[in-house]
Amino acid sequence: MTATQSAKQPAGKTVTSGKPMLAFRPLPVPQVDVRGFWGDRVDAVASRTADILYERCVAARMLEQIDPDRPSPGVVIPFHSPSPDEVSFTGNEFTGSTVTTQMFWDSDWGKTIETAAYSLYRRRNDALEARIDAVIDMYGKLQQPDGYLSSWYQRIQPGLRWTNLRDCHELYCAGHLIEGAVAYYQATGKRKLLDIMCRYVDHIADTFGPEPGKKKGYCGHEEIELALVKLARVTGQQKYMDLAKYFIDQRGQEPHYFDEEARARGADPKAYHFKTYEYNQSHRPVREQDKVVGHAVRAMYLFSGMADIATEYGDDTLRVALDRLWDDLTTKNLYITGGIGPSAHNEGFTADYDLPNETAYAETCASVGLVFWASRMLGMGPNARYADMMERALYNGSISGLSLDGSLFFYENPLESRGRHNRWKWHRCPCCPPNIGRMVASIGSYFYGLSDDALAVHLYGDSTARFEIKGLQVELVQTSNYPWDGAVSIRVEPQAPVEFTLHLRVPSWCRKAALRVNGAAVDLQSVTSDGYAAIQREWQRGDRVELELDMSIARLFANPEVRQDIGRVALARGPLIYCVEATDNAGQLHRITLPRTAGIEAHAEPNLLGGVVTLSAVGTKEAAENWDSGLYRTDPPAVEETKLTAVPYFAWDNREPGEMLVWLRDG
User: Fold this and answer.
1) Most buried of the four, 14, 114, 129, 275, by CB within 10 Å?
2) Is-catalytic flag, 312?
3) Cis before residue 595, ω within 30 degrees of 0?
4) Radius of gyration from C-alpha coordinates of the chain
5) What was the pLDDT predicted at 88?
């Protein structure tokens, strides 16, 4: 079956996990069509990015590793000539400063398959579908009789399976292949990879767990937890959900599994490259954790899995821990763009309020992970504190990682550049390109959440959602030019009259909003809770809801504890954070000041950067003239007026290279 022949309603069964009655699950991608802003981005991924991901994986020699009909390629480090101290393996130990990424190539294939799946649903591509089918066939041939499947441990380091979960990504790779399998099944109806991964997960469930004789381990790089939830939901297999819960519950328990595992392979547990188990969030049991620490992507995937399990099992102990961690991230460790993780050293967190701009790591994968976490927190019910953050990360810190045409990428997303940080075609650690690709291609699943008797609208923009509620089919059509315009029109088309609650998010950035149902005004204050307006009624065909969100321009200031942003101001309009680029602003950007008295205007620019709204103001600039005589002097520099133009942060570095700045000097 080709993508264009696939059924609109993917198969799936309900798992009974003791979940609370009000559990909201995202609509599968095939049930949501997006247009407008996000439609353009999905089209870019479907028409360019998906093919590029496959081609670059092949160029990196990843296909050789999974093809059992070819000789093993051995250790390969593509696109890079490493120095001796950058890669060092002794048996199954990682001792160098940079481990080869080859051991998690299966994860890159998993994300590439997932991107391709949702792209095929969007746009028929017979050649790409045939290529992905061939990759899936290779994994089928590679799979061992007991279900085990890891190209690294089968083709590069055979005989060492399940001996170094701390460093070597076996379960992480399994997780991404699971997500790819679920996506490919949902988008194309083909279940070969889904069956392959079910056999592998059956093997994993036989290997790990609390029962006597099983390993008590979990992955050093979290990911499988959230993937198992997806697999359980699409197959209806409770044991997959229970396995996800086991991995969450077991993490950080004593005796520490990574210590025992190291001793079992004859290694010193203290000879750990990253020195602390905070790096992979296994320093404490998850319910005892209260600070975001370590590797940012790992943390986001863990918290996503925790949120899924909290939703499915109605586990308030996990919810309490997640809210502590959420508060710590959003009040002390978050960039204004939704980027996270300031440090390149650990690709993660350092200290509270340490948010440098020019050296910000802010990995694309980490911001994508924040979207995942926020989305899953919404499974426990509509709450704008999570949806607003999901939106902030979506529109700013994540899609900045993908060029407008879908062909180039950022790994790091700084908030300031002197012009030397530019997009690249690939990366020798290529986790970010397929991660942003799969997120954009599946963006429809983040728009809505469905419960037994309610639908929540988390994101606004041109889209059509199809869902079943109380046994009846409903189509909901959004019409909007969001995020450029705050006018949202929603038409509800049920198969027959049906009563349910429609939850509409009123973003915290919106200073003024108005709501009407079939032309009649609704008192927003009386129907709004946790940032969502709830409209409960029996819906008839053609019912219309209109939401007006004021798109005013905001000046944003950082907590004074953030030393890099003292005396600085950032600009926002609606969900978008803005920046200035050298191509629009003459002179060095660090010399520009935005006076507090300056008026700021918005301008629709349909022919700029694919169609954006820019911001403009009259600022001041310190002149560099007459400083030829020395580096310092007693007279201050002259100040002159200058026109200031700002563009959305996500769109920077899509024109000629040059300086960029988010935080302007505040005057």
Assistant:
1) 114
2) no
3) no
4) 25
5) 36
